[in-house]
Amino acid sequence: MTAETTLIPLSIAVLTVSDSRSIETDTSGQYLVDKLIAQGHHLAAREIVIDDIYLMRAAVSKWIADPAIHAIITTGGTGFTGRDSTPEALLPLFDKTIDGFGELFRHLSLSDIGTSTVQSRAFGGMANQTVVFCLPGSTGACRTAWEGILIEQLDSRFRPCNFVSHTRAKA
């Protein structure tokens, strides 16, 4: 197996789950968009939906079914408030879960937010050859996930392994 020398750009969709944000006030979603484009990936789609199980499932299901979308990153709805329902909405869509993602995210966020990290239900999975990462809604949490995990795991050049080879992305 030879190492990739050039990035295989992914088409990535970003979903913000929020009852109060708009495109203009969505700093977390904008952070992710800016970072994925700066890394050489393509923004395939961006939406904001309220914290409603069926609206989240509809948006993500549409993207999972689209062969042109390789990855989905969601932000918001992963906490413990009454309205937080991203895990309940999206976990049933997965073919496989990426258990290590949530574990590693909470480990990394411990240094930023202390034991409050136990209230994060960040998670990831694979569905129809689409990798899905679900992050908390704060921009700081998105930064922790991007810099500590996603920048490498969405990079075809990262070794010993990354998620690009599990998607429909081609060189």
Automatic annotation (TrEMBL):
The keyword Ion transport does not apply. GO terms for cellular component: cytosol. May be involved in the biosynthesis of molybdopterin. It holds the Pfam family MoCF_biosynth. It comes from the Bacteria. Residues 13-157 form the MoaB/Mog domain. Belongs to the MoaB/Mog family. PANTHER family: MOLYBDENUM COFACTOR BIOSYNTHESIS PROTEIN B. This is Molybdenum cofactor biosynthesis protein B. InterPro entries: MoaB, MoaB/Mog-like_dom_sf, MoaB/Mog_dom, MoaB_proteobac, MoCF_biosynth_CS. The keyword Transmembrane does not apply. Keywords: Molybdenum cofactor biosynthesis. GO terms for biological process: Mo-molybdopterin cofactor biosynthetic process. Pathway: Cofactor biosynthesis; molybdopterin biosynthesis.
